[in-house]
Amino acid sequence: MSVRLILRYDKTVRYSLNPLIAVADKIPGVRVVLAEDTGELYAAVNEALMNNEKCVVGYSILTTMLVNDAFLSELKSILKYLEEKNCITIAGGPHATGDPLGTLFSLGFKVAFIGEAEESLDEFLRHLVNGTDPFTTKGIVFREEDKVIATGRARPIDLDKHDPFPYWRRIINPLEITRGCPYGCLYCQVSYIHGMSYRHRSIEKIVFYVKEMARIGVRDYRFITPDSLSYGLTKISREPDTGLIEELLSSIHSALRSIGGRIFYGSFPSEVRPEHVNKDVVRVLRKYVNNREIIVGAQSGSNRVLRLIRRGHSVEDVLNAVKEISENGFTPSVDIILGIPGETREDQELTLELIDEVIRNNGRIHIHYYLPLPGSPLGLHPPARIPNDIEVKISRLIGSGKAYGSWFSQKELSEKIIKLHERGVIVPSIYKGPTMKTF
What we know:
The chain is an alpha/beta fold. It folds into three domains: 154 residues, Cobalamin-binding domain (Rossmann fold, 3-Layer(aba) Sandwich); 118 residues, Transcription Regulator spoIIAA (2-Layer Sandwich), CATH 3.30.750.210; 131 residues, Transcription Regulator spoIIAA, CATH 3.30.750. It is built from 15 helices and 17 strands. Strands 2-1-3-4-5-6-7-17 form an eight-stranded mixed β-sheet, with helices on both faces. Strands 13-14-15-16 form a four-stranded parallel β-sheet. It has a three-stranded parallel β-sheet with strand order 8-11-12, with helices on one face. Strand 15, helix 14 and strand 16 form a beta-alpha-beta unit. Helix 1 packs across helix 6, helix 8 packs parallel to helix 9 and helix 9 packs parallel to helix 10. The radius of gyration is 23 Å and the shape is globular. The two termini are 27 Å apart.
């Protein structure tokens, strides 16, 4: 059977979709269409139906997309239309993984893909092409009348066996070099989507994709990793593999020498954990990278809160990282979250003290408001209250340029996500609806 896979290619989720496009492009009998708006989606669906192709429509969903009432209403309307046309609707991404029941019953998708989907999407589409049962695919949850059936988690993939993006379409994005995180921070979705073991793309493969990007005309090279100084590690460690990091950066630098490409490493989207920062590894970065800012994930200035959320480092680690970064010619930019559940006023005041110390060391503060994300252990917990006087101090820091970030819009987002729970759009884990069956 000929299958048309129509992906709603929203720019906010293209990094999630690009590896899946790379997978689907290589399956005989599958035609992949990228619909950049609703009109293109409807046109592709109607053409597939006219050609008697099996129609599969896929979305990658972020929870933050659903707070937009217009988007949510349109999505539900589209999914209802597609169900009437006997199209299979599939969803993936952080929201589908974190809230599969809400994705199926509140939004109206037929199938939710759980976690990384390169191999599960490949299996699902090949079943459709071959006329076999796609609902035996590992790594999916789907509706069957009033029941939900989960097929079990798919095995973690080997990054070297999968393209990070479909470069043959001239579609690229920052190159993912590491997937998975062993720390399992309670506010974060990463470990619960991609697993708690590091998996690294080999230097050989990284250099291959860097060269393909160069052929397309890319000049600035960025990398996706939960921690750029974890490259090569196999388990939790306070010591980075400095030698392997230098081998990686040296190899990329050599591949780009002839075109004058610039390497951005340790900046977004490849921030660093503070305990991995030491004099030797910062000097390696200085030899090869073009960014002059290194982003450090601190999250709180309270050791009590850091232990509570299982960060695995201390405030002292943050201060040491800031010192080493600043003394070696970089600007430290420190990520801070306020409103973490369980946080007290005393904790928030300690965080303000850390902020002041970072600023005294020529650093900047990237400040965030806590978002209750489905699939994270704290995802069902609302933010801690932030007193007015502390909010005023944060506002002044942002106004002075000493801090930056989407603090005010994130506060509004957080409130809207809580309302999604109240409205039943997000289904909490204590949901008493359809029964779960696993086979």
